[in-house]
Amino acid sequence: MKTPFDIGVTPDADGFLRCIRREGEPRRVHLFELYLDPEIQQAICDRYGVLEGLDPGGAHFELRRQIRLQSFLGYDYVRCGLDGLQMPMSTRSVDDTAAMGHDAGRQFEDEHTGPVATWEQFEKYDWPDPARASTEPLEWLEKNLPDNMCVMGNSGYASSIGFGRFFKSLSSLMGYETMCYALYEQRDLVAAIVSRVTAIYKASLDRMLEFERVRLIVANDDMGFKTGTLVSPGDLRELILPAHKLMAQTARAAGRPYVLHSCGNLALIMDDLIDDVRIDAKHSFEDVILPVAEAKRLYGGRIAILGGIDMDAITRGSEAEVRARACQTLEACMPGGGYCLGTGNTVANYVPVDNYLAMMDEGRKFGRG
Questions:
Q1: Which CATH number does 13-85+135-160+206-232+243-365 carry?
Q2: Which pLDDT belongs to residue 109?
Q3: What are 137-151's pLDDT values in tens digits?
Q4: pLDDT at position 88, please?
Q5: What does the pLDDT look like over 80-121, one tens digit per residue?
Q6: Given this model, what pLDDT does residue 368 score?
Q7: pTM for the complete prediction?
Q8: Which residue from 39, 64, 75, 275 has the fewest beta carbons nearer than 10 Å?
Q9: For residues 26 and 157, which has the higher predicted lDDT (pLDDT)?
């Protein structure tokens, strides 16, 4: 198998989890991404023959593919969860203009209204039943995942919606505009939606935690934009953060770290997230909001800091610029531990593959003399 990397890396789930828990400075750079877009995955597999010898028609091909690809890239985990927890939303499609665009176009949620904007719609909505969701992928990974890897509990492979989307589910089910009005005019409906979503995610979390190979839980719940939170910090404290606190308590009681991925400026609720919710790590950083090196300085003594190679930098920079940025970030964030290298958000299909691999290569080289 060809490789774009000068230095080999063997997965080390134990070391990865020690890094997330801030248990000393790691022996090497560990990596973290919420996910890689399918087009990026396929491009790497095709270029380097990652899937040689795997039968596309064989049983559990997608899971075997993920293990092979994640190991090749140097990750210590695969992402998995329950399948069958989709919540239908109101969406609009546009052409995907990325070089490796989605064939079906890009989907955007309708910000004006959603499928649960009234009490009548709440009662008629087809809420997913976590008791009926499939754990079959987790069952297979429990027995077949290499011993040096773990499962990052998030979403199943048949779903990209993720886990722990309390604010995102509320704003998507109601529509952001409708939700903002409802916070004043139908607050009981808002609370009912959050309560229903919390029950769904709590039951699904309980089922994920039955699997020993699930060794960390990652919630992805975008709560901010460039200059602040998407609703008032007070509303988040009353309606949303208690749900995250319940998930964090449940995960930590089972010995699993609770990681939050959230885009946007969360400065006004960071102390709540750290001291009350008690997240173990935060992911998603953007230079125009809070550069990752500054986040490490501000919060690195209390939580782990993950990713942060700005999406604009990795997308529009040259390979040399990406390498320099990765090195600068590692020099600032690695001392003391509690940092994993990755992009500021996800490896989207508009990220040049060579730039992504350059970032990863610098992570392998860092501290190797």
A1: 3.20.20.210
A2: 75
A3: 999 999 999 999 999
A4: 81
A5: 999 888 888 876 666 656 666 666 666 667 788 899 999 999
A6: 74
A7: 0.94
A8: 275
A9: 26
What CA–CA distances, in Å, run from 310 to 121, 183, 260, 279?
40, 33, 18, 22
Indicate the domain borders of the chain: 13-85+135-160+206-232+243-365
How high is the pLDDT of residue 309?
Answer: 98
Question: Of 18, 97, 19, nearest to 338 (Cα)?
Answer: 19
Q: Could you write out the three-class secondary structure of the chain?
A: CCCCCCCCCCCCHHHHHHHHCCCCCCCCCCECCCCECHHHHHHHHHHHCCCCCCCCCCCCHHHHHHHHHHHHHCCCEEEECCECCCCCCCEEEECCCCCCCCCCCEEEECCCCCCCCCHHHHHHCCCCCCCCCECHHHHHHHHHCCCCCEEEECCCCCCCCCCCCHHHHHHHHHCHHHHHHHHHHCHHHHHHHHHHHHHHHHHHHHHHCCCCCEEEEEEECCCECCCCECCCHHHHHHHHHHHHHHHHHHHHHCCCCEEEECCCCCHHHHHHHHHHHCCCEEECCCCCCCCHHHHHHHHCCCCEEECCECHHHHHHCCHHHHHHHHHHHHHHHCCCCCEEECECCCECCCCCHHHHHHHHHHHHHCCCC
> What is the phi-psi region of residue 336: left when phi exceeds 0, alpha when psi lies from -120 to 50, beta otherwise?
left
Average pLDDT over residues 321-346: 97
Q: What is the mean pLDDT of the chain?
A: 93
